[in-house]
Amino acid sequence: MSFTDPVRLTQDLIRCPSVTPKEAGALVLLEQLLSNAGFYCKRVDRGKVSNLFARWGEKAHYRSFGFNGHTDVVPVGDLDAWEHSPFEAKIKDGMLFGRGAADMKSAIAAFASAAVDYVSNSPPDGAIILAITGDEEGEAIDGTKAIFDFMEETGEQMTACLVGEPTCPNYLGEAVKIGRRGSLSFDFSLIGTQGHVAYPHLAINPIPALVCLLSRVTNKDLDEGSDYFDPSTIAITTVDTGNTTTNVIPSATHATINIRFNDRHSSNDLTEWIESISREVARHFGVEIITRITCAGESFLTPPSSFSDLLLLAINEELGVTPVLSTSGGTSDARFIQDHCPVVEFGLVGKTMHQVNECVPIEQIIQLKSVYSHILGKFFA
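Below the sequence we write its predicted structure tokens.
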């Protein structure tokens, strides 16, 4: 019986210093593993980003299970603050330390090893697809999106997809994500006329206009939540004038806000609302407002279905816990998959992700592989 060690594979992946957008050998390692197990592998690199598509079984099979994840990691931060070298993959006291241990090389290793063992021991009537990117922690425009563009162009198809992002706040099996909030940022530049503070009538101060704009936006309750989402939120992330003197009215000031919105809104609706307030404020204060808008993704929901029920049952049978269905957290690459097929997310506890001394219990890596194997068995049963 074939057995691929997910802990050793996680260590091998951590030792590839794949800080976005560097590939650093992580995808090469996975391609070799999957090719040896009979997967058709195709690099789908775009721009400066490396991506890997791998399929076992027939193309466009009516029943195909997909895994998605990323091998890129965030920078290590303060190197001196690490107890162990971030790319050493040190095991100590039952914990595996290293950048990417929680987010999300352990999950990559768990589902890759589960897929390899499954097709080797119980070849399914169907296809298993792995879509792995090197650009989730960055801009993400040439990562998972590039893979699914390739799939659409070549007739590849998943009938369901599981993203291995960390989803559990405190213990493994705690939560399965069935959706994500949208993310919309507005970068405001307000332009007035510089002048002497003793002669304010000869200047146009943009700061009162900015204060008014931010007050009107942030004092509004967008909603009270929906069936599966918490209320939408608005946060001011920076305010900057850069005025180092006390006797000059500045000519410009800047601020940025971010809106995390649920399924009661779209980016277009929110943009129209913000732009309407901006026009009123600009007209009232006599300033010019230039707005740069960035949408990282719309909100989406995969409603509870037989697919999510299958996952919940497999997790319960393997771990003895019943997950909650969640839509919390930031954006993920699931936003690029939700138009292709039903997509849910399940992975490790994310407490240490992006932190110094990022780590996971090795027991949980083994358990996660067992859960993914269990899910494959139920899906193809």
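Residues 101-121 form the longest helix (21 residues).
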